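**Paired protein data**
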Amino acid sequence: YQNAIYTVDLNSNQITGQILVNGWSEHFLKWGDTLLIEAITEKSVYLLNTATDQIFDTLSFSSESSRGMILDKNGKLWILFSGGTVNQIPSLYRVNLTNRTIEEQLMFFPNSNPNYLTTPNGEELYFIHDGIKKMSINDTVLPSTPVIPANNRNFYSLTVDSISGDIYVADAKDFVQQGIILRYNNTFQPVDSFTVGIIPGFMNFDYQ
């Protein structure tokens, strides 16, 4: 929640610098020599030059509370906004990073709270919205039906294995008891599940 990003030397595990930003920043993406910084509360994405550690531009949006961003196979940025708590329209945007323009804004129903955008291959998008929904980067409308229904579960985060296509969904339950990771195959059939810690919020694969 601090108005800063810190640089760290991973050899010494020491903080080596500080980059001041407005508000709370969370997810990062690397695009060439540029670091894209998701500014959760600022309706913005900062563009930082990784050679100089200087922010040189800002992408601005009309929605609040970003909930994940990805780069597709064409180098376009997709970013999901939940709309926050001020009754703004939740939206999924596609951005041309070369000329810094918004190419597409797909709008959800108000207060529908979409969450956690991800992609396994740069061609398909997955996100949480009344379950797990899937769409192509070529689609011009949002999907209406989930490929994995929530069925009263509290889906909180997800990821997709880029090799097998298996989908891993975190059920945070009531945010007090331990969560559960649910695994589905690439045809959206349940495979297995396992218990994890409280509020499972991020998953990553180590393919080494």
Q: What stands out?
A: The chain has a mean pLDDT of 94. The chain is about 0% helix and 50% strand.
